[in-house]
């Protein structure tokens, strides 16, 4: 049994996220498993580094599946890109170690969130960025971001229901840059909770608009109360850029 590792890109606009669902099958996982099952001539289950939400994009999603197929990695790459829809692409195919698991072996991830910070719409970024016409104080947002770095309990920054699973995560970097009419936020850490980045973004935007202070972020962390954090921003501005492995 071979273990095949894929690196994928997808535009998440018209999909209900990565994870296969029972009611409908308009998901990235569903599309991939249907294709790979036909290609390999056997039932295929594919795992990914994480379950991106509906509307979230990916430049560097990593996934893996097991197969008895003798197809070369070059043949798998060519077949996938010939038959996948135009908004999903396989960028790289390789043989992985038998015990490699794209989610369990991941040591970190990098995401980017884009804001169009202008009163004039940008038609070319409309699927990949959220619009915010109000002026933003980048220095205040950077001060708030500094308080989020390191290892914390991010319970206040997730939409996940009550669970026995730990909500402690480590953020190594939050970079905030202005590029022409956009403000881009880069988050790097050892893992992120459900909706965590989108809630962090909502909180940082409230700081940037003067609704809350940079110092308030520390109080939100300590509270563990989702109601005290900012709004959940739209999914379309978020992209998974890279998954890290040792």
Automatic annotation (TrEMBL):
GO biological process, one term: tRNA pseudouridine synthesis
Subunit structure and binding partners: Homodimer.
Function: Formation of pseudouridine at positions 38, 39 and 40 in the anticodon stem and loop of transfer RNAs.
Domain of life: Bacteria
Entry's family note: Belongs to the tRNA pseudouridine synthase TruA family.
InterPro entries documented for this protein: PsdUridine_synth_cat_dom_sf, PsdUridine_synth_TruA, PsdUridine_synth_TruA_a/b_dom, PsdUridine_synth_TruA_C, TruA/RsuA/RluB/E/F_N
Keyword annotations from UniProtKB, A to Z: Isomerase, tRNA processing
EC number: 5.4.99.12
Active site (record annotation): 53
Listed transmembrane segments: none
SUPFAM superfamilies assigned to the protein according to its UniProt record, in alphabetical order: Pseudouridine synthase
Protein name, as recorded: tRNA pseudouridine synthase A
């Amino acid at each position: 049994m071979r273990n095949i590792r894929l690196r994928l890109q997808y535009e998440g606009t018209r999909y209900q996220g990565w994870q296969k669902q029972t009611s409908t099958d308009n998901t990235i996982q569903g599309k991939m498993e249907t294709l790979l099952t036909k290609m390999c001539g056997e039932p295929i289950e594919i795992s990914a580094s994480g379950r991106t939400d509906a509307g979230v994009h990916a430049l560097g999603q990593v996934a893996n599946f097991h197969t008895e197929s003798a197809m070369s990695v070059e043949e798998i790459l060519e077949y996938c890109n010939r038959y996948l829809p135009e908004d999903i692409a396989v960028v790289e195919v390789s043989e992985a170690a038998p015990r490699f698991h794209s989610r369990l072996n991941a040591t970190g991830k990098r995401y980017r969130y884009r804001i169009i910070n202008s009163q004039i719409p940008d038609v070319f970024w409309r699927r990949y960025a959220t619009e915010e016409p109000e002026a933003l104080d980048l220095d205040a947002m950077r001060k708030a971001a500094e308080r989020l770095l390191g290892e914390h309990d991010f319970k206040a920054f997730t939409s996940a229901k009550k669970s026995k699973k730990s909500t402690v995560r480590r953020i190594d970097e939050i970079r905030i840059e202005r590029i022409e009419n956009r403000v881009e936020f880069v988050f790097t850490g050892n893992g992120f909770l459900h909706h965590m980045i989108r809630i962090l973004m909502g909180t940082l935007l409230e700081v940037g608009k003067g609704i809350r202070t940079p110092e308030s972020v520390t109080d939100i962390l300590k509270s563990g109360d989702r109601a005290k954090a900012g709004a959940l921003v739209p999914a379309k501005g978020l992209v998974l850029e890279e998954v890290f492995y040792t």
